[in-house]
Amino acid sequence: MTAVPRKRADARRNEQTLLDAAAAAFVTSGVDAPVRDIAFRAGVGVGTIYRHFPTRADLIVAVYRHQVEACAEAGPALLTDSATPHEALARWIDLFVDFLITKHGLPEALRSGDATFETLHAYFLDRLVPVCDTLLAAATTAGQVIPGVGAYQLLRAVGNLCIGAGSDDRYDPRRMTALLVAGLRAQ
Amino acid sequence: MTAVPRKRADARRNEQTLLDAAAAAFVTSGVDAPVRDIAFRAGVGVGTIYRHFPTRADLIVAVYRHQVEACAEAGPALLTDSATPHEALARWIDLFVDFLITKHGLPEALRSGDATFETLHAYFLDRLVPVCDTLLAAATTAGQVIPGVGAYQLLRAVGNLCIGAGSDDRYDPRRMTALLVAGLRAQ
DNA sequence: TGGTAAACGGAACATGGTTCCGTATGTTGG
DNA sequence: CCAACATACGGAACCATGTTCCGTTTACCA
Questions:
Q1: Would you say B157 and B180 are in contact if contact means Cβ atoms under 8 Å apart?
Q2: Which UniProt keywords apply (chains A, B) (predicted)?
Q3: DSSP at B115
Q4: Predicted pLDDT at A1
Q5: Does residue A113 lie in a domain region?
Q6: What are phi and psi of B185, to 5 degrees?
Q7: Alpha-carbon distances of B136 from A107, B41, B78, rounded to whole Å
């Protein structure tokens, strides 16, 4: 038995305060919000942030974990609820897009080669690639989607298409991802 | 007649040296290469860079101007050389993608909301949107492409799909843009 | 209640963009 | 050829941000 020493009360309190502060900062300044801003909002020193969340990726993952889980869990449900596997795929991707475009700077962070965001990248992949793969495989088996496009590549393309969403009303990421999914269709 | 005072010889020389140094730095470190690196390569002080190219965008535009012009001029030629307008569009977009994926960080810069890159963004749009629009219009008129997708939006989507190219061999921007263009096709 | 380890705060450091001004140099009229 | 002037140069200094480190504070437990 490894005795699990419970964290101190102030530490637990600060962790929650930081999550709230970060979530608020992310909304107004995007996921690149300056560390000092987040610390100030939470009323703590910057050292406290780094103690709880060693990298920015850890903080981002913690803030959005619930929403990513929800998106992942929606996959199988859509597969049974939709008329066709291709429709299920399209609807699931819409869900993913809706999540991404409301998080300023998140798609950029997911794509940046920056080692800081490695954890973030890995978490999204671990959680979403298998789901996407299931949907994609179902659609391919049903002969509705051309073979040879992996779940990873598709997700990455969708993520890319969501970059800069909201900063320009002439660009509609939903429309463009829909076009991409249409291109997947076996004619 | 506004007398045009010719620039000093050293200034002209430095401008060319800087262009060469920047081009080299962009190849190895991407278009975000530190200003000090570029200055060092060129053997000048950082002040000299800012005097010749007030923003990074000016430098990037100057370095890639020829290639962008070439891409723009290829549009009309492709339209007459190709079997169908849709094929011309597809080939032109391939050309654009080939240009982008060899310029590390350029697609990212084009999309960043950063005001520093405003000039860059504007230059690409000025030069390429009209060309793309011509191709798109021809394909639409021929009934080969669904209406309602503007040249700006298409170019932006293609640019986005090229972000991070080369950093990950599981992701193929050419393939993804081809899928997007396939999705444009009127069935 | 006192001792200890956990946690905290924020100063200090590293990096990279940007500005500014004293100095050096090309250019031109005499 | 020279002097005087405007142009251009160099790089120190400044600012913004991420990151580290350590002296101080505080929660917990005996």
A1: yes
A2: DNA-binding, Transcription, Transcription regulation
A3: G
A4: 42
A5: yes
A6: -60, 130
A7: 28, 42, 12
Q: State the average pLDDT for chain B.
A: 95
| Beta pairing partners, A185 | A145
| pLDDT tens by residue, B28-41 | 999 999 999 999 99
Residue with tokens 């191709």: B135
Measured distance CA(B163)–CA(A135) in Å, rounded: 25
Q: Is A12 among the domain residues?
A: yes
Nearest to A56 by CA among A80, A83, A76, A37: A37
Considering the domain architecture, whether residues A177 and A85 belong to the same structural domain is answered as yes
What is the predicted pLDDT for the residue at A12? 96
Domain that holds residue B24: 1-53
B58 located within any domain: no
Question: Is some CB atom of chain B closer than 8 A to the CB atom of A112?
Answer: yes
Q: How far apart are CA B155 and CA B180, in angstroms?
A: 11
Neighbours of A152 (CB within 10 A): 16
What CATH number has the domain bearing residue B25?
A: 1.10.10.60
CA–C1' gap, A19 and D23, in angstroms? 27
**Shortest alpha-carbon distance between residue B136 and chain A (Å):** 15
Burial (CB < 10 A; 0-12, 13-18, 19+), residue B15, is middle
Which of A153, A161, A184 lies closest to B170 in CB terms?
A153
Q: Does B179 touch chain A (CB under 8 A)?
A: yes
Which residue of chain A comes nearest to B155, CA vs CA?
A: A171
